[in-house]
Specification:
Number of domains: 3
Low-confidence stretches: 432-462
Strand order of the largest sheet: 3-2-1-4-5-6
Bound molecules: manganese (II) ion
Mean pLDDT: 89
Strand content: 15-25%
Structural class: alpha/beta
Radius of gyration: 27 Å
Largest sheet: 6 strands, parallel
CATH class of the largest domain: Alpha Beta
């Protein structure tokens, strides 16, 4: 038989791409992993007559002639198909892989399929289904749209490609229901989730780590919470933390720890390995036994190694600062700035910073016939400054708060450089395409939602 399988904690992208795979490989069976993400379970429960699948546990690995993996190829996330992969390794079964994740260094390689960057692997597979001339009905179109919207934060994540957007346009023409998409994308929290959210918000302590705000909360619950990961994401967003870890203490000393990051600077999986758990940069979990406070302290101690330093002002500023004297006339200052090719400069008197002046303000004054006045009359005297170790975010906040275009960079009373709006814009729109370090890539990598039975490797109880 041909078997289609996605990752554990099946998300909408994995379910949608499983359904497409079953169409691309007629007769193939979809094997559902043990756990489905909460909203996916709700969707599937309503649509299971339409999208048929079997529990993976009911399938005999020896009967599988070809395994078709969708939305996953990292061997560490493939424990649920380990017996079948062993047959692939032994040359007894074939492997096709459809995935959109960056290489992990632990990837299985298929003899067929496709691996290309897309916001959702659903898009990649839909391109193939459409190329085969297949039509889709509104139910299917809705599921595929859910897959793409869910994996791309509704087409806003940095990983979204124009190809994803094009597929959504086609799906809407095919009758995808946006009201159904919304129903499952924004599934309301359960009562238990709302209670947990309140507890997390009330018990989060914020730690400053290399300039990142990392929250750690300890909560006590009398039974495991379905959807603790969603609660963690929501609390992280509400409190504007760069990352948030929730240590959930259960009866009999059991602990579930879930981490989520909004900033790419925080490697959640790395921090959770200190607790015997794991995961990815944006998401991870651990389960173990022991006192919650001990786990919290271990986690906090691991943060320094899991947070990358912020981009510092020193890397963005123009270091060799030429300054103007406040006694220069505006005409002289304007000519000097033009000669330097600078859009502004700090104003120094006897080596001390007394103001900042911009070429634009000077030009305006000159145009108004005030070219004979001194620079001091047209500089901004209340000068905000930043230190060279301030982060890009600090500089941005100072500029926006003061609505100012350039910040002198001061160190021990001396001007070391100047950072301008243009410098920040260059960094924000920079070639890495990510500007600041917000991690808006809400990919299914975060499938590890931290249930206590999440996986053998993360429930070692160490
Ligand atoms: Mn995906």
């Amino acid at each position: 038989m041909e078997l289609v399988v996605g990752h554990e904690s099946l998300d909408f992208d994995a379910l949608a791409s499983s359904v497409i795979a079953a169409r691309l490989y007629p007769g193939a069976v979809i094997g559902l992993p043990r756990r489905l993400a909460r909203p996916v379970r709700a969707f599937y429960s309503l649509h299971k007559d339409r999208f048929t699948a079997r529990g993976l546990s009911t399938i005999d690995p020896a009967a599988v002639a070809r395994l078709i993996l969708v939305d996953v190829r990292d061997r560490r996330r493939l424990r649920h198909v380990a017996p079948i992969l062993a047959r692939v390794d032994a040359g007894e079964a074939e492997l096709h892989v459809y995935d959109h994740h960056p290489p992990s260094g632990h990837d299985v390689e298929g003899s067929g399929g496709a691996v290309e960057p897309r916001g959702a692997v659903t898009s990649l597979m839909l391109e193939r289904l459409r190329a085969a001339g297949a039509a889709v009905d509104p139910l299917e179109a809705t599921l595929y749209a859910l897959g793409i919207y869910a994996d791309t934060a509704s087409l806003t994540s940095a990983s979204t490609t124009s190809a994803d957007v094009a597929q959504v346009a086609w799906l809407l023409e095919a009758g995808a229901s946006l009201s159904m998409v919304n129903r499952y994308l924004t599934a309301p929290f359960s009562d238990a989730q709302r209670e947990a959210l309140a507890a997390v918000l009330a018990h989060t302590r914020t730690h400053a780590v290399h300039g990142a705000r990392v929250g750690v909360a300890v909560i006590v619950m009398d039974r495991p919470l379905d959807g603790l990961a969603e609660v963690t994401s929501e609390a992280c967003q509400l409190d504007a933390h760069d990352a948030l870890f929730v240590v959930c203490a259960l009866p009999k000393g059991r602990l579930v720890v879930v981490g989520r990051a909004r900033s790419r600077r925080v490697d959640v999986g790395r921090a959770l390995r200190s607790l015997g758990g794991g995961g990815h940069r944006g998401a991870g979990s651990a389960t173990r036994r022991g006192p919650a406070e001990e786990a919290r302290d271990t986690l906090v101690a691991s943060l320094a190694g899991a947070v990358a330093p912020a981009r510092r002002v020193a890397e963005l500023m123009s270091p060799s600062v030429r300054a103007l004297s406040p006694e220069l006339t505006l005409a002289q200052a304007g000519a000097t700035l033009a000669a330097w090719g600078h859009a502004g400069a700090p104003v120094l008197r006897d080596g001390a910073l007394v103001g900042v002046v911009s070429a634009r303000d000077i030009q305006r004054a000159v145009d108004a016939g005030r070219d004979h006045l001194p620079v001091a009359s047209h500089m901004s005297g209340v000068v905000r400054t930043v230190g060279p170790d301030a982060s890009l975010e600090d500089a941005l906040a100072a500029m926006v708060d003061g609505d100012i275009g350039r910040l002198p960079v001061m160190e021990t009373g001396v001007v070391r450089g100047i950072v301008s709006r243009a410098d920040l814009l260059r960094a924000l729109y920079g070639p890495d395409g990510r500007g600041d370090d917000r991690d808006d890539d809400r990919d299914d990598d975060r499938d590890d939602d931290g249930d206590p039975d999440v996986s053998p490797a993360s429930s070692s109880g160490r």
